[in-house]
Amino acid sequence: MNKVAIYVVVSVLIGIVVGAGIGWYLKPAERVEVPSGLQGEVKIGWIDALSGSGAFWAEELLACAEVAVEEVNDYLNKTGAGWWIKLYVEDSQLKPEIALDKLKSLHAQGIEIVTGIGFSADLKAMMQYANTNHILLLAGGNSYELAVEDDYIFRVLPNSTTSAYCLTALYRYFGIEHVIFVWRGDAYADSLEQATEALCEEYGISFDPAIRYNPEAAEFSGEAATLNSKVQDAIAQYGADKVAWTILCFEEGKAFFDALKPYHPENWGIRLLSTGGLCLMDWVTEPAYAELYTQLSSTASDFRPTVSLRTQKVIEKVKAKIGREPDIYGLIGYDEIWILALALQAAGKYDADAVKAQLPTVFENYASIIGWAPLNKYGDKAAVTFGLYRVMKVDDTYKWARVGTYDLLTDTVNWLSEPEVIS
Fold it and tell me: Which of 119, 232, 256, 357 has the fewest CB atoms found within 10 Å of its own CB?
């Protein structure tokens, strides 16, 4: 199918969704006949960490994907398309070897299009098998080391180098001269640590790759003692106002902060500047952690969705499902399903190579729920804006609030005149 054909498919689909009040936008296109060929149940594999330290995001991701499946299938039914999408859901437990086994199991069922995949460690384990067997993966895991040209992996988020640029912009903004870096040992955090270290070297910021920890560990007393020692040494050399520490963690961050409490990090007087996993986590707003976190001169950053009427409608539907609002790592599940539906319709058949060929055009024309951007040469979404967040006490509870933004294109940090409470 030629490039014009997908414009027509998308335009027809957009017209239906606009009528439902979702609010899509696409360039006008001329009318041409689009071939069909899709019939009955269309199987889409879905792999993510529904249990383990990644379950918080995987639950959101699946809920957003399910909302999109409902919308897509409703449209296909109303238009008499003759086909519909069904998700075949597998739990990777955030264990790469299990993720690969799940991919092989789906492939054995004839599934050659798989999505979800919110974590880079899982994606890394699946890539070789997917490329060898021509299985299309549309993923959220965004480690920059997985950016490869002309493969079968496409990603709905920019790769992790963008987070490194945001972190180093914060270091520079606050006049930081020395950074103490702590991170979970996995593909995502390893790549972000390496990118941040390289940028710190470029900007003349002293960088200590202090602690790479085992994310499966139950407690972190040894790591906490090491961090405290390094902090005291750095303060003695640079002064507290010139030192920052960064931690890249998921749910295990709760145990890490428990281990830190005897060292009274609230008295260190240095900044905590972080990105990704720690940001917007529910456990950080629990009183036992929020009281500490708010005393750490902390700023957290994360990809910032463009909040439109359509975004808000999806957020409301997901909140009704799981009892909380999804963040960007959940919202991408909605994009994944719509992108695949559009590419399947344009391809006119269930074939990974045919669907893969349509994805660049779909990305270029699809009004993403988290903000539009085309694909770069690696099949990853391009530039992005970050939100900057802090925890605030509102009445008697702690809430996350957006306090600023970082613009990757201009490399600038901007602060809001008033915080926007978001959870």
Answer: 232
